Amino acid sequence: EFSALQRMVSALKSADYDAIRKAQDGARLNAVRTVGQDKAALEAAEGARRTTGNQLYGEAGKEIIPVNQTAFAELLNRPSMDKAIERARALAAEQGKPFDVAKDAFGQYKPLSVENLQLVKTGMDDLVKNPERFGIGASEQRAIEGTKARFTQWLEKASPNWEKARSTYADMSKPINQMQ
Questions:
Q1: What pairs with residue 65 in β-bridges?
Q2: Do residues 65 and 156 make contact, with C-beta atoms less than 8 angstroms apart?
Q3: Which of 86, 90, 113, 155 is the most buried (most CB within 10 A)?
Q4: Cα dihedral 140/143/147/153 (nearest 10)
């Protein structure tokens, strides 16, 4: 009823209602621009995030992690890790980088670079984000998300620099997401 009444009154006093509508539209646009800003601000924020992310992930990637045999072996025994490592190998090959998750002559896992561990994490991300591509059902996807969380926690503890790169990237993404 109120909408119909408003339409009738706006027809009678169209100039007054046009002024109110324009003022409201302007206020709405100004409010959005305080968060959304403009294309140049978005591109600048994305560029800053990319530069900072590349620097922090690059520094962390050079680290060599001595593998905690028990925790890491337990994770590697999960079927999803085989898929993630296979995906990580493909990503490394596509980037022209070496990738190796191997055991030494004594059956112990060799130390790994954080860069390679990040590729494994990226492989896990792919499995979870595109489960249908990998023939993964909903229950298996939830289980893989749990494995990914444990792997991420393990890597955060093993490499504080990687955790810093990750959290900084996430913090820098918040205003970008708002702008978008």
A1: 112
A2: no
A3: 155
A4: 140
d(CA 136, CA 116): 24
- Residue 37 backbone zone (phi > 0: left; psi -120 to 50: alpha; other: beta): left
Q: Are 84 and 116 in contact (CB under 8 A)?
A: no
The pLDDT of residue 150 is 93
Task: Point out the residues of the chain with pLDDT beneath 70.
Answer: 32-36, 68-69
Helix (H, G, I), strand (E, B) or coil at 103: strand
Which amino acid belongs to residue 178? Q
| Tokens coding 27 | 């206020």
Contact at 8 Å (CB) between 111 and 67?
yes
**CA end-to-end span of the chain, whole Å?**
37
Distance, in Å, from the CA atom of 134 to the CA atom of 125, rounded to the nearest integer, reads 12
With helix as H, strand as E and coil as C, how does 122-153 read? HHHHHHHHCHHHHCCCHHHHHHHHHHHHHHHH
